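Can you give me the bound-state structure? Components:
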Amino acid sequence: MSRQSFLLKIDKSPDIQSNLQLSLQNKFSGLLTTIVDDGYKRILLDEKVAERQQCFTRSPLIFKANDWLYSIFPMINMTNILDSSSSEVRKNYKLLLDQEFNFINHVKPRGYYYIRPTCEPETVAKFLLEKIEKTGNDLIFIVEIELHSQKNYTRMYRRDLSPIEEDIEDTWMYWNAIHKAANYHQRIEVAIVLSSDLPSNELEIYRWFGEPVIMLVIPHNTFTTNSSNFPVMTKKQQEIVKMFMQNLKLYIVIEPKSSSDHRIKSYLEYIEYLSKSLDRSSEEEKDCLKYPLQPLHDNLDFSTYEVFERDPAKYILYQRAIENALKDMISEEEKETRKAIVLLVGAGRGPLIRSTLNAATNTHKKVKIIAVEKNPNAIVTLTCLIKQLWPDKEIELIAKDMRNIVLEEKADILVSELLGSFGDNELSPECLDGVQHLLKPTGVSIPANSKSYIQPIMTKRTYGQVQKRKGENKKREMHSEHTEVNWLIYSTNIFHIDNFKEVFTFVHPNNDNPIDNSRYGKFHFESSIDCILHGFSGYFSSKLYKDIEISIVPDSHTKGMISWYSVFFPIATPIQLKKGDKIEVEFWRKCNTEKVWYEWKVNAPEETIVHNLNGEIHPIFLA
Amino acid sequence: MSRQSFLLKIDKSPDIQSNLQLSLQNKFSGLLTTIVDDGYKRILLDEKVAERQQCFTRSPLIFKANDWLYSIFPMINMTNILDSSSSEVRKNYKLLLDQEFNFINHVKPRGYYYIRPTCEPETVAKFLLEKIEKTGNDLIFIVEIELHSQKNYTRMYRRDLSPIEEDIEDTWMYWNAIHKAANYHQRIEVAIVLSSDLPSNELEIYRWFGEPVIMLVIPHNTFTTNSSNFPVMTKKQQEIVKMFMQNLKLYIVIEPKSSSDHRIKSYLEYIEYLSKSLDRSSEEEKDCLKYPLQPLHDNLDFSTYEVFERDPAKYILYQRAIENALKDMISEEEKETRKAIVLLVGAGRGPLIRSTLNAATNTHKKVKIIAVEKNPNAIVTLTCLIKQLWPDKEIELIAKDMRNIVLEEKADILVSELLGSFGDNELSPECLDGVQHLLKPTGVSIPANSKSYIQPIMTKRTYGQVQKRKGENKKREMHSEHTEVNWLIYSTNIFHIDNFKEVFTFVHPNNDNPIDNSRYGKFHFESSIDCILHGFSGYFSSKLYKDIEISIVPDSHTKGMISWYSVFFPIATPIQLKKGDKIEVEFWRKCNTEKVWYEWKVNAPEETIVHNLNGEIHPIFLA
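Here's the bound-state model for the whole set.
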């Protein structure tokens, strides 16, 4: 889905064949439609189901198996007859639905099944769980939910409702009740139907970004007609559609008035036009969940270095920081006589050597570089680079752990890139503490500090991915307590429940005596709307030198810097939040002689366990 | 790999960059070469390893990570220095190899590693197992083995060998010793090097088809030059290369004299030309392992029916059988007055209705078809077909299990297609016994019989796949005793140890009283060469009517018939066989009121367990 995918929705298909052709000719990926005739079903309610089973739909042979599998997206209506007070009616309708389901499952045993419910949430959940039990993991149910409830429309046929009733239903409540009753099953996702009216509270829209939304349905009546007689949307609606396309991997479902709506192509072109203004460059990586690197424990491999070096922003900022430090340190008068000793710890395949050499050239200052690297495989590369590219530069290579080296002369500048997504989570403080005695008293460290941040989030998809990792038994992922690991995530399928808050700070060089790198904090947030707390996003920012900063905090993210995902601290059991609920959470950074680890615990509105107690689940090893 | 894939092999690459370019320009998939300089390694034997580690190869930065991952196939020489009597030399060489390995693993953490050993089999196995332990499942080791040992060449530098020594080494023994010592690890595969001399015993070639061969290396000296000055092969060598390409999914590795061998393109074109005459139509499906269908227990889905109906041979033979039966049954005089009642059990989506209607039309006989089908989803299709395609034909549809139907008038012809790959393994006998009382005493059954066959085989790859299925927990595959299931396989990566033997026969209608569908037999085979017994292939043949037969037995496989894979009855522990070893195996077909099952047990040359005892592992359910 790197290009936006589209589906055509035509509820009733008297001629499903020509409708599929219509959709494919117009470059839709497929047709979303009911398979079983409604007329037949209505009759059935009065008759015996078993005897009529032989002709309840059109022949499935109109399509090849592959058409069914890949181009047809079946829709199942699940009306409130399922809640009928008559057990006879209820049973008969359930039999009908079962038959419809079995037939669809026969022609299309996997893929997406689109469910349009108008019955009680518990009834929907029960039905879906029953079917999930009987089918394979590659069958996903999509529940249709309107972005905004159209009460007025409902009133047109519900004569029992008073016409002055004003309370607008929050449709998320209905969805959440279904999903909760189905134990948030990961094989149940959502289709959001755009409406011409929009919720007055924008958070009601943003909250969907925390849900597993897989389709955005755009009905014909959300379009108006412009002066050139083309279908267009309001600014606000355009924005919403773009946000959905930008943040979520989903199908855009176009719902024309009927199959003879002559504007089908125009709807599609309009949305395609909207999608063109979006940045889809990192689409492929989206919804990525990774176990954090442990660079002190493992040696990074060649391609990991390559990916890091590809960052277009990071090394330019490092270079600028080194330039400024050189300028401050060596005056114009001294520049022929003085040479700055740059101690570069964690040289990898040499990007910071390059930044330092560039900085020296640009500022016309002399430098001697001492490059330290513990990975013997990276040393091979560095040796070749120095021999081939920089034979005339003063570069000394030390193939050791930075915490064990000895220098004849102390350094003027200590340069490192040891920061993780949560700042100190790759043990930058411990490493720099171990080497800072080699820095002159007047020396500077680049970076000069690091800060971490957390933010409460709702993210069912990421949380679901975390749960799926359970039982994985790769080398570094031996823990089944998957919800007590601070994962790395790259996802925009997230709703931010409140603003972020600063957590821990580390300053380099660290002049404390004794040095204590353990930390603790208690943080408070407030829920802006009814939603679910799945855990906390973690970010970092760092001052490299004076005003030169790098950051992955949402508000101030360094432009173009791609090296870091966010951190995700899940909680063992998601918490249902009411609007205005106060969230209190405690975070610890703990250390012993072998490892460093984080612990976290929510105190309010509900108390959780202490996650990663004693670092038993997710230790960060010191060696 | 649906088109044949080629690699270029250049052992020593002083200029690895231009060699890679050479290979890609000539449309090879990649370059097979050593990464670490041999010269460096020789020096190292006398020096301290640690101090020189900084420059033991060329810079890895000459390639991007993706080149390393996808285009470079590293080769590691593992000489008999590893078996040196001096523990100092041994240790030093091991350190060197470790360093070489670690560096390769740094630039290319997964993919194929080509190992060229000249040391003791146990030494090779130990080294590989040690590395397997430390790396991921996506790293595969390939051990280079010569198809035919070139003793004479060896003698050129081994002055200690008497020049008259005649015994030619069987290279499979060396490989088998390595693989056995490595416990047949599935991450160890083979590269076979073609030679100008060939083994005199052809079985020594065929036996490799039971091994996980992933590369066939063709050195330049296997080519001769024809009158037009083009490289060509002998007829026999052509045959061997073709057999390898036809039967195995592998890389063809071209090994020129050197990178300046001007015939590189000609070698490639020659082999490509050979590959063009091969049938690669079913390439994608190859090496496929499936859990057998249980059509009595589960309803088949739409696409399964579609695949079966696509068979170009089966339904034509059924049609011909029905034609012949109609001709024998109804004389020309009767053809206006008499109508044959054809009872069609298991009608599916109607292919046999079509065959019957065609047969009636072709023979100008009248038929009434009674089509029985228990799958309600297939009934939907049949109903539509009858309504739309055959409204004027006499077709009665009965939506029931064939064992429970009642007819007003008995049938003349009973037609069914209930045979599995082992004939009776989808319970064709039980089903037909249950319906044959509806056949007139003069009536015939199509098919008239079924026979099963077994054949002892060596097939490491398939056996490995069976082992991988362990722990899978899909609905129908809940058993961990994966070696006690009679799997369906489609593979040509198999060596047939001896000819097949007939096992069980069933005749329809069955006039025995009482009917007993249990069976037992004891069968004897002989090993034609040293090899390994992994289990037994199973096949079937069936007489449809008089001389019209269908068969999947290798010698008499019905041309173009694609509906059936073979069966694979694995044994719990593979047995090493010596040439001439007698194999005795017992097979049981057992039945009770709920299920049918097979048991099998090898008695000689070694005794195994009774596989699938009491049908607890792999029952075939009667309902």
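A couple of observations. Chain B touches chain A at residues 53-61, 64-66, 68-69, 99, 102-103, 105-109, 136, 299, 301-303, 306-307, 349, 375-381, 383-385, 387-388, 397, 399, 474 (CB under 8 Å). The CA atoms of residues 261 and 616 of chain B lie 61 Å apart.
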